[in-house]
Amino acid sequence: MKTLLPLLTLLAATAVAQAAEPAPRDRIEHGRYLVNTSGCMDCHTPLKMGANGPEPDMARLFAGHPQELVMPPVPALPAGPWLVVSSATNTAWAGPWGVSFTANLTPDPETGLGRWSENDFVQTIRTGRHFGRGRPVLPPMPIAVYRHMTDDDLKAVFAYLQTLPPVRNKVPEPLPPAQH
């Protein structure tokens, strides 16, 4: 019995550790659920014109602003309470912050999240800054809402995004506000 005690203790500790950490498939499915209920596709998957009007371009699922779509100068907003202008793809937004382009969230290593760590992703959402220390994440990204997700939720979102097909799509850098 004395020789079995360390083995039984190790097995019990392993079982507790495995129970505390969700299986990867469970984490990915939780991430899929969060992404699909949090409106991520609304901006990070470009819209295209379909038979019934604008629809997500599923060939560019979560690929962000199309690199070949060079935006013309931002139109002037009319006087009044207007704040933003959005592209027809819903991937470029202009407002007082300048022009922002939705990011490529696919795991492409050159143009998406393929070289990001789970911690890079979590810190970006927590701080509202790229990698937790870089440039600010700009509107319309609802950082003020998503930063309230738990670490487990954000890790699940990242795990799901890593399962997507990588799409090579270099999103432009944001543009500063127009000088008047």
From TrEMBL:
The entry's keywords: Heme, Iron, Metal-binding, Signal
PROSITE patterns: CYTC (PS51007)
Alphabetized Gene3D superfamilies for the sequence: Cytochrome c-like domain
Domain of life assignment: Bacteria
Segments forming domain Cytochrome c: 26-165
Keyword Heme: yes
Leader peptide range in chain numbering: 1-19
Name of the protein this chain belongs to: C-type cytochrome
Species in which this protein is naturally found: Pelomonas caseinilytica
